[in-house]
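User: Acyltransferase, Dietzia psychralcaliphila:
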Amino acid sequence: MATETPAAPARRRRGKMAYRHDIDGLRGLAIALVVVFHIWMGRVSGGVDVFLTLSGFFFLGSLLRGASDGRTPLNPIPHLTRLVRRLYPALVVTVAATVAGTILIKPPTQWSSIFEQTLASLFYYQNWELALTSQDYAAADATISPLQHLWSMSVQGQFYLVALAVVLGLTALWRLVVRRGTPTTFLLVVVAAGTAASVWWSAHGQAVNQPWNYYDTGARMWELLIGGLVAILLAGIVLPWPLRMLSTIAGLFLVVSTGFLFDGAAYFPGPLAWYPIGGALLIILGGNLPEGERATPRRDPVTWLLSARVFRRLGDISYSLYLWHWPLLILWLSYDQQAEITLVSGLVIVAVSVVLALLTEKYVERPLRMASRARSRATPAAQQRDALRKGPGRSARDQQRFVKATVLVVVAAVASLGTVGWWTATSASRSAVPYVDSLTDPDHPGARAFFDGVPAPEGVGYLPSLLQVGNDLPVSTMDGCISNFESSEVQMCVYGDVTAPRTVALVGGSHAEHWISGLDEVGRHYGFRVVTLLKMGCPLTLDASVSDSDEPLYESCAEWTPAALAALVGLAPEFVFTTATRPVGVVGPDIAPRQYVELWRALDQQGIGVIAIRDTPWLNQGRGPIRAGDCLGDGGTPEECGMPRERSIAPINPAGLAGAGIDSVRLIDLTDGLCDAENCPVVVGNVIVYHDSHHLSGSWVRSASGELARQMGPATGWW
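Assistant: Predicted structure for Acyltransferase:
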């Protein structure tokens, strides 16, 4: 990661800001923690949060100091130029290498999402891309994007633009209206207010939707703003020697211990993020030494240690090291999915990352940062200092390196954008899912291979193809007839025989929704309409909970549930079609939650029948979700990519006992079309069963519609 402005001002000497080598070292320590915890611990260390604070310390601190100098021009172009020179070249080169590695190692089923993240990373909205696609920040494994870590770069880029607009804009307004003094105090008040608002927003976001909160720029903003405040307010404060030593030792402990005590992915940027950030601020404050004094191992051990060459050098390459280590880790795990990260393999990844970081820093970052300084500096004082050195020119050797680095970056950018553009332009024809009637197709019998013993010929391609299966979604999703995670609006759509007087209401979350492909077929054939009341991740219960703690699943689910129940009663369907079970944790046989049973009793009292269908196996063998298409694309067999039956499905349907005594409940179980006696494979009858790791493909559900009709007939009494 990058922290803008190479100089690290923190204390005053003869009216100038002294350079802080220990802050360079703190940056190096933070990147070391990030790498170690990503590779061996599989959790968030707090190092990224320290980086964000240091970014605010350098960049915002520089802007605020410039605002106090009436001679400082307010042109944002020099600032933006330096940012682009500092951040973009290494990013472009790393992303291009990651795209190449993706094509060589990752299955084509993952290319689309990674290429979308390529654009998001290059244009600094990767955090929103991950948030909008509901991708939790997870430990490294073969299914994770090799560009996931670049969310933090996007947050920084967005912060830089906001900080430039606010500070330069308010400074210009001050000079135009007030015309005397400096706006420093006014700006500090604005920054403090923004910090307080962001702190509140991050705490609120953690309580409401932590996965989204983790990527939210507004929730992250305080981590950078506090750094800018510290750069101004604590710059001239020198603590007495005992307090300096105690504060830096305490700060070092807080920074290093964060990842060992808790996983920041579950808590940051909420209140617990003050733990590592507070440690960094203590180190910054305690590192302010009296004028003319140098840190020694005895009096200022932490400041001395962080000023050591090894940490300072780590600080120099921290940005490139951050960029390289994660793609190398993910691509290695994708190359050998059976491999565990050991001490030796982890050290190899670290060594390769360091070498690439050193090369990138020397041959890409440094040459392109060495633009004509006199033109790029924003303040007259900075321009004067550059003039006293060697002036704006480059040596012939520097010019050659500049040209070579520029050519490399341009080629990398063109290659990345060209690859993504070609893939996107051809995606429609490649990923469109053909409609095949699996009830009659002799090559793709799907569920009929298990239910009816219909033979599936060998040597026939899967349906849908590996590139198509991710798009084999329920029609209700394609029609926008399922409320997303943010919406609490109840949406009702009609399928099946839309003119029929008889009604089945399909209610609940996505695991109820994926049956619409079969219900639509059966409804049109047997004369009933299917009305959907669906919300992502929100199985319908009386109180929006499915656990023993009675905690609602999430806020908008709690808001949607009573409205959906009211709409359901008003609809007065003959039957409600919903899920009967759900798995225990990420791995384990299914259970029938008591909240499901409570809903069945309530519907029974309303005179509404219940058709409860058993949930499907979830593809997770203890190492994270397994996407069926990705696993098959990596060379896995249908059985290897699937689940053992005994680990994912209870021997007897648990809903049978749970629903005993409720006369209106009818149970449906299509497990035997998903699993044989021992395995639940991801391909049945040459049809891929799942479009991801736990949702059924529309093609497989349609192939099971015959058995669905056979079981629904007696359940409803309609045929």
